[in-house]
Design brief:
The chain is mostly helical. It has helices at residues 2-13, 25-40, 46-71, 81-91, 99-115, 120-123, 129-153. It is globular and about 50 Å long.
Length: 154
């Protein structure tokens, strides 16, 4: 039973096979999150979206922590549940968006997730194990949301 629980958490952390797609697993995870957002995130009210993000942070951190143990690596590249959190944080302040705005949000998040401006990179060490994995993407999502807001204003 413990092995099944452990494997389930790893599958959550990697979004099943998505984290194992060739090259740039973070980009694949972000793309999956952007594609899923209109169905699994946008339909809900703002308070429910906040609740979804809180649950995603908590369960994502638990899944990331277990994945680090099972895969014997700190923040393995195949772990992409953190990209879902960051991508959805990017979309949080906005109602329904056009396709171009979704794509812009995806691009902005990837830029901030890769470049990790202050304090995104430092935040990885604020919390232990999977919690640190999740928080840097949350902060990258905040930066990306601000950039997307400016983009939409233009």
């Amino acid at each position: 039973m413990k092995k099944l629980y452990s494997q389930t958490l790893v599958n959550i952390a990697t979004l099943g096979p998505i984290g194992f797609l060739p090259k740039a697993p973070g980009t694949w995870g972000s793309a999956a999150a952007a594609i899923a957002a209109p169905f699994l995130f946008y339909p809900f009210s703002f308070p429910i979206k906040i609740f979804i993000l809180i649950l995603l942070f908590i369960f994502g951190a638990m899944a990331c922590s277990e994945a680090e143990i099972q895969l014997e690596k700190k923040d393995p590249g195949c772990v992409v549940i953190d990209e879902v959190l960051g991508q959805w944080v990017t979309f949080l302040p906005f109602g329904l968006m056009t396709g171009w705005q979704l794509i812009a949000g995806f691009i902005f998040f990837r830029i901030f997730d890769i470049l990790k401006p202050w304090p995104v990179r430092q935040s990885e060490n604020w919390l232990k194990s999977g919690w640190g994995v999740m928080i840097d993407d949350l902060l990258a999502g905040v930066y990306a949301a601000a950039a997307l807001w400016l983009f939409r204003m233009i």
